[in-house]
Design brief:
Number of strands: 12
Radius of gyration: 20 Å
Order of helices and strands: EEEHHHHHEEHEHEHEHEHEHHEHHHE
Strand order of the largest sheet: 5-6-7-8-9-10-11
Largest sheet: 7 strands, parallel
Helix content: 25-40%
Shape: globular
Strand content: 15-25%
């Protein structure tokens, strides 16, 4: 079996309300869907969402890395050779983990379809049939955030994550209000997205703990592992690393420095399911819990995250499988997430591959993609994205 073509297409889905974090606001979830086709006709689909406000990467840059460097390195290779694929992609270009992740997911999907196996069997099996997801509330007014958090906790979401980082005093009051509004036993986390000042973070996190916070995510800049370790050493809310973790080497340094209780593994950020499993194995060896996070992304990548979360015994912090739930209409795998909004649970599909029903690139949003685009998307294809530039 050999890869004969790779195509991609940009997809845009408006958020139900603009998704805001401390570094910026996104009105739409924009993602790139990738199709990998083998010489026997088997196809696999992957996805990567740049979320510029979080990653600093753009759709145009993602497309350029994919079509100019990463995709050509895989044409002619056996799509089931996942380790070899990563070696080839790394030799073609350094970094560019989003582009590599999109292809990694497509290769897992294709390999699963070729074998007739759901993706979790490629990841070692599954320890849970349904994956609990947190509900993630973007930045908003205290009233909006509290009402949204209470509403989803009442539906059955056992973990609520709110965004913060811009104003520590506001964050403390918000945590206090949300804690009072959700049922007893609801786990509450706050994601500061690197927003706290190192000189005052210890006091802020202590106040958050007193207000009822269970887990604080990336309170300090990604480079400040010493500060993260010091916060962890003070007790109080558990500390989770996110922006500090982009690779297996980052994970090793976090473990060495004692800088986190929990690792937030985002499969797109680390380069796909293959490197995500390596990071997860390191966390397990170090006795750390993991959370499978989101950029956010749409249904293809979110299903990949669900398979990984189901396969890891130490994925004990509910995953962030909310991308398909945050948009007005999920265009890639709507059936897989139809009931999750009302239960907080994502049922793991048993269909081969990732378990979506894509049989071709969705819609005609990028009309410039030739059917045999081995070299990828033409440079001006993004102009065809609905609502684009």
């Amino acid at each position: 079996m050999k890869i004969v073509s790779i195509r991609s297409q940009a997809v845009r889905a408006p958020y139900r309300r603009p998704f805001a974090i401390s570094s910026g606001t996104s009105p739409d979830l924009v993602t790139l869907v990738v199709e990998v086709r083998a010489d026997d006709g088997t196809t696999g689909y992957g996805e990567a969402s740049p979320m510029t406000a979080y990653t600093g990467e753009t759709l145009e840059g993602l497309q350029a890395a994919l079509t100019g460097h990463v995709a050509p390195a895989l044409v002619g290779r056996d799509p089931r050779d996942l380790a070899g694929a990563h070696a080839a992609m790394d030799a073609a270009i350094r970094g560019q983990r989003l582009a590599k992740a999109a292809l990694d997911l497509a290769l897992h999907d294709l390999a699963g379809r070729a074998a007739g196996w759901p993706a979790h069997l490629l990841l070692g099996g599954r320890v849970r049939d349904t994956v609990p997801t947190a509900w993630v509330v973007g930045l908003g007014t205290a009233r909006e955030t509290t009402e949204e958090a209470a509403g989803y906790a009442a539906r059955g979401f056992t973990h609520i994550k709110v965004k913060g980082g811009a104003d520590p005093d506001r964050d403390v009051e918000l945590v206090r209000a949300v804690r009072a509004a959700v049922p007893d036993g609801t786990e509450l986390s706050l994601d500061a997205n690197e927003g706290y000042d190192p000189s005052t973070a210890a006091r802020t996190v202590a106040r958050l703990g007193e207000a009822g916070l269970d887990l604080v995510e990336q309170p300090l800049p990604r480079w400040d592992l010493a500060g993260m370790a010091a916060l962890r050493g003070r007790g109080g809310p558990r500390v989770m690393a996110d922006e500090s973790l982009h690779s297996l080497h980052d994970a090793l340094e976090i473990v060495r420095r004692g800088a986190a209780d929990v690792l937030n593994i985002k499969i797109l950020k680390v380069g796909g399911l293959h490197p995500a499993r390596q990071v997860a194995a390191l966390a397990e060896a170090a006795g750390l819990a993991v959370k499978i996070g989101t950029m956010p992304e749409l249904g293809v990548a979110t299903l990949a995250a669900a398979h990984l979360a189901a396969a890891l015994p130490h994925a004990t912090v509910p995953a962030d499988l909310v991308g398909p739930l945050l948009v007005e209409a999920e265009p890639l795998a709507p059936d897989a997430f139809a009931g999750a909004r009302d239960t907080g649970l994502v049922a793991l599909p048993d269909a081969p591959g990732l378990g979506h029903r894509l049989t071709g690139l969705p819609g005609d949003a990028v009309r410039g993609v030739p059917g045999d685009a081995v070299r990828g998307v033409p440079g001006d294809a993004v102009r065809g994205v609905p609502g684009g530039r």
